[in-house]
Amino acid sequence: MTRERFRTPLAVLACGCLILCISFGARAGMGLYLQPMAMEYGWGRGIFSLAMAIQNLAWGALGPFAGAIADRYGPGRVLAGGGVLYALGLASMAWVTSPLAMHLTSGVLIGTALASTSFAIVFAVIGRVVPPERRSAAFGIGTAAGSFGQFALLPVTQLLISRYDWHVALVGMALIAALIVPLAAALAGKPAAHAAPQSLGESLHEALRERGFHLLFWGYFVCGFHIAMLTVHLPSYVVDNGLKPEHGMVALALIGLANIVGSFTAGLLGGRFSKKYLLSTIYALRAAAILVLISFPLTPATLYFFAVVIGFLWLSTVPLTNGLVSQIFGLRYAAMLAGIVFFGHQIGSFIGVWLAGYLYDTTGSYVGALVASIGLGVFAALVNLPVNEKPIAERKAAAAAA
Amino acid sequence: VSPLGWKIAGLAALALASALAFAAYLSPTMLGAFADVWAFCVGLVR
């Protein structure tokens, strides 16, 4: 069997899902190392937090470059390189003893690895092997796989830390991350050059002139703002409102579970309905859910209801946003363009976490941050509406024919 | 005008200014300028 025959759409989808599962799963357990590392080295939590902030920014800022390299030299190489960096970053994190080394390994190395092994790169390959009418559903399956990875690898990390120690857990996760390298073989191969008679620079020039590209960027900014803010601050909000910390943990678990269903469903719906209207609905529903959260007294029942609703809307924007980028701009430079839009997501994540903390410190409450989240949800619902979903290639052909 | 009134007026003015700035940013002229600055930077690198 030749290498090309081995790369069937099903094999590409399965291996892509496994890569996303590992990439997101290994990252989801990062917070579990905070306490044992801080205790062993006597570090304040700020050192670990800064490493995570660097990781998130590197993930976002390097995403477009990883995408551009994937579009030019093939995504398999980028994914394999990302797998090596991921394993190196996790393994070397087990032996760091200084804050600088921590920032370089956990921050820069793993951030670069995430930029090379996440949605934009994997979806660019899946998009090329799956027929256009099934592309959105395939993106939904991929997003659900990443969500499942966060859910499944978290207890594995916790088990390794509690049974052995955090050093062993990091080496174990490094070995799992190294599996990305052989899996990347299924996603190897360059996109067909004849698919777009454009250079990478011309493609970006065209995208920057397109209003929809900017609107998707800012919509994704709001997605990052909501998700990062709620992930970090929801447990504290729960305790501030008189519930137990366990309620916050259950709420986060419910979000994770509903997220798997939500991202898969969004992908399926994206294949049948207009993606921009679905995105607009998701952001409007997020704003409504947060409004309900702050409008009623917080009880375990209202919290869990909120968690299921917001979890369903959690990463459901991912298959739709990536699907729209591929649909409008084509697949030739999809990894780079989706990487740029994802940078907006990461900027939003950074600002969401910081702003909620700042507003809490200055006002003594999360209400200001939650009201801002509602306003941004409405903003994102509106900015997706004017996006022109028609492929640029079709628009050009129509203009040439006219 | 009460302090709360000033706050509401200030927030409304901020929201209006932001909306106008965002609309200006999305105008074809500005988007074209974005793309041209990018092309100029690529030209410098080359």
Quick recap:
The complex is a heterodimer of chains A (402) and B (46). Chain A is mainly α.
Provide an overview of this structure.
The complex is a heterodimer of chains A (402) and B (46). Chain A is globular. Chain A is 82% helix and 0% strand. The relative contact order of chain A is 0.15. With 46 residues, chain B is mostly helical. Chain B has two helices and no strands. Chain B starts with a helix and ends with a helix. The interface between A and B is small, with 10 and 10 residues.
Query: Approximately what portion of the residues of chain B adopt beta-strand conformation?
Result: under 5%
Q: List low-pLDDT spans of chain A.
A: none
Distance between the termini of chain A: 48 Å
Largest sheet of chain B, described in full? none
Q: How many β-strand runs of chain B?
A: 0
As a whole number of angstroms, the C-alpha radius of gyration of chain B is 18 Å
Topology readout:
The complex is a heterodimer of chains A (402) and B (46).
Chain A: H1 3-6, H2 9-28, H3 34-41, H4 45-73, H5 75-93, H6 99-117, H7 119-129, H8 132-163, H9 166-178, H10 180-183, H11 200-209, H12 211-240, H13 245-270, H14 275-295, H15 300-312, H16 317-329, H17 334-363, H18 367-383, H19 392-401
Helix pairs in contact in A: 2-7, 2-8, 4-5, 4-6, 4-17, 5-6, 5-9, 7-8, 7-16, 7-17, 8-9, 8-13, 8-16, 12-13, 12-17, 12-18, 13-15, 13-16, 14-15, 14-16, 14-18, 17-18
Chain B: H1 3-25, H2 28-45
